[in-house]
Amino acid sequence: MSIDLDQLRTSFTNTPLDEADREEALHLLLRERRDGDADLLRHLLTQETAAHQEGWGVSEALGLAALLLAECGREEDVWALWEAKNASFDTMAGLDGFLLFPAGIAGTTAHVIAGEDHPERGDLMTYLSEYLEYEKLTDEDIREHMAGLRSHYED
Q: 139-154 and 60-71 helices cross at what angle (nearest 10)?
């Protein structure tokens, strides 16, 4: 299937996509992402996450989906990113923790703290705290990591 990105943007919830289709769509979005693509990217990440819960390893498509969604900068996407990181042992090790700060350190952390009713709040807060303590990250570090990862996918 050759992906029509404009059509996919309007009908992604009704368009069945296999692994190859998702990867093609993600590579198109790498080059042609728009401000309004967050819902499509979240959908693609959710599908990649589900596929990884049933397998092993970390596909390029999962990493790319996580990066592109994180680049949207929406604090609420931390939950989908956390779910992707937790899909399996391999994804926990293979997806970089800096992707869990889509709205920067302060914005994302405040959103997680405010999510008192979210069942993953405690685990995510523990992970974020330990990650920040170990890595000593700043928002600039996160932006640089994301730019480096983007460069990797663009090559």
A: 130
Position 58: which residue type? V
Q: Cβ-count burial of 65 within 10 angstroms (0-12 exposed, 13-18 middle, 19+ buried)?
A: buried
H or E segment and range at residue 122: helix 121-135
Per residue in 77-118, pLDDT (tens digit) is 999 999 999 999 999 999 999 999 999 999 999 999 999 999
Give the number of residues written for the chain.
155
3-class secondary structure, 102: coil
Where are any strands of DSSP class E within the chain?
Answer: none
Minimal CA–CA distance to 121: which of 129, 130, 112? 112
Threshold 0.90, pTM exceeds = yes
CA angle 19, 75, 72 (to 5 degrees): 50
Please report, to the nearest 10 degrees, the dihedral formed by the alpha carbons of residues 7, 10, 13, 15 taken in order: -10
**42 phi/psi in degrees, rounded to 5:** -65, -40
Burial pattern 27-63, b for ≥16 Cβ within 10 A else e, equals bebeeebeeebbebbbbbbebbbebbeeeeebbebbb
CB 19 within 8 A of CB 47: no
